[in-house]
Amino acid sequence: METSLHRKLKELYAASPDCIEVVESKYRIDAIDHDGVIVEIQHSGLGAIRKKIKQLLDDDYYVRIVKPCLQSKLVATVDRETQSIIRQRKSPKKIRPIDIFRELIHFTQVYPHPQLTLELLFVDSVEFRVDTPRRGRRKQYTTLDVDLIRVPDPSEAIVLSSLSDLWDLLGRPKLPKRFDTQQLAEAIGEPRWFAQQIAYVLKSCGATKVCDKRGNAIVYRAA
Q1: Residues 164-216: tens digit of each pLDDT
Q2: What are 119's strand-pairing partners?
Q3: How far apart are CA 111 and CA 59, in angstroms?
Q4: CB within 8 Å of 33: residues ≥ 6 apart
Q5: What architecture is the 166-222 domain classified under in CATH?
């Protein structure tokens, strides 16, 4: 089921209504922008579109992946019969820019590429739910729709297109010339398990190289 949020973002980026849901390289494309660039709105993990994006790039297309990142979320529970809101609350869930590294783990065969940009678009959304309690079921609700609270400004998105952008996303941490994941974790203020994921992405993308081992710890240097 397509959400209102996804539909409105396609309309936001498309050059015209005729540039929505078109077919290129045997793939259905979300939109084509004013510069003729393919736009893919990707809510779920980047790994799910890895094959599709790689094929489009191999076919010499320019591609923009727009990743909606949750800035704020309102959860509204509606009455099944009247569709009126019976209660609502703010969700504590948010997505930080640095969290994209968790998805890049499954996308390093594609990113970076000179014809690809990955845009982190921060959105305020509302999720409409209806109660569906059922024994043994983890989710006691069904999502009816997800919509935008306000239309975001694409110019405010964080654009990732190079290895340098990855370092910018980390805040260009002060690291020794040779560092391990514990030093990376301390420099960026994140737990070591997350620093290990980031280190994997940096190495796989070509931003760092393995240069030594320190006990069981891999030692890296900037490429």
Answers
A1: 999 999 999 999 999 999 999 999 999 999 999 999 999 999 999 999 888 88
A2: 66, 159
A3: 16
A4: 13, 14, 15, 19, 39, 64
A5: Orthogonal Bundle (1.10)
Alpha helices in the chain (DSSP H): 4-13, 50-58, 101-104, 163-169, 181-188, 192-205
A 10 A CB-CB count for 83 gives 10
144 within 8 A of 130, measured Cβ to Cβ:
yes
- pTM, to two decimals: 0.90
What are 66's two structure tokens?
């727009």
Which ranges in the chain are annotated with CATH 1.10.10.10? 166-222
CA distance 106 to 39: 20
Closest CA to 63 of 24, 11, 109: 24
DSSP 169: H
pLDDT at 169 (0 to 100): 95
The token pair at 7 is 């539909």
